[in-house]
Automatic annotation (TrEMBL):
Keyword check for RNA-binding: no
GO biological process: phosphorelay signal transduction system
Alphabetized PANTHER family for the sequence: RESPONSE REGULATORY DOMAIN-CONTAINING PROTEIN, STRESS RESPONSE REGULATOR PROTEIN 1
Entry protein name: Response regulatory domain-containing protein
Organism: hydrothermal vent metagenome
Record domain Response regulatory: where: 5-118
Record-linked PROSITE patterns: RESPONSE_REGULATORY
SUPFAM superfamilies linked: CheY-like
Keywords: Phosphoprotein
InterPro entries reported for this sequence: Bact_response_regulator, CheY-like_superfamily, Sig_transdc_resp-reg_antiterm, Sig_transdc_resp-reg_receiver
């Protein structure tokens, strides 16, 4: 199976290098950037990430603001933070986060969370695709019903 592509976004260079290396060592393809703005540019140009891991608190675009933009490209998100503040966790959940990791990160312990998030993201994608197909079928069915109704009136 193809290695999953992860976008890692954190303004802390040490987190980027150590967590990024750990993810690569675990078989993921990792792109690393140090700002929300760079993440948005990268996703706009590539938009083929299986998952983004975003630091909650960054200068410029915050993790939450970045997640809102990435959602437009259907990129699922895990938030990363040095704080386990209840308000932050609640906000992350409200924004559709698949998980919330607290620094310092132990990569080996984070991998099961990442794998679970990737699985949930795939299931959500399948549900969205199914919804689109069903909506299309309903529209087509409704159109056919209207045409049949018109023909029956004649």
């Amino acid at each position: 199976m193809k290695a999953k592509k992860i976008l890692l976004v954190d303004d802390d260079g040490l987190v980027l290098s150590t967590f990024g290396k750990g993810l690569k060592d675990n078989g993921y393809r990792v792109s690393m950037v140090d700002s929300g703005e760079q993440a948005v540019r990268l996703v706009r140009n590539e938009s083929s990430f299986d998952l983004a891991i975003l630091d909650m608190r960054m200068p410029g675009l915050s993790g939450i603001e970045t997640a809102k933009v990435l959602a437009q490209f259907n990129v699922p998100v895990i938030f990363l933070s040095a704080y386990d503040d209840e308000a932050d966790v609640k906000q992350a959940v409200t924004e559709g986060a698949l998980a919330y990791l607290v620094k310092p990160i132990d990569v080996e312990k984070a991998v099961p969370t990442i794998e679970t998030a990737l699985q949930r993201a795939m299931e959500i994608r399948v549900l969205r695709d199914t919804e689109i197909r069903l909506d299309s079928a309903l529209e087509t069915g409704n159109l056919v019903n209207v045409v049949v109704g018109i023909l029956m009136e004649r």
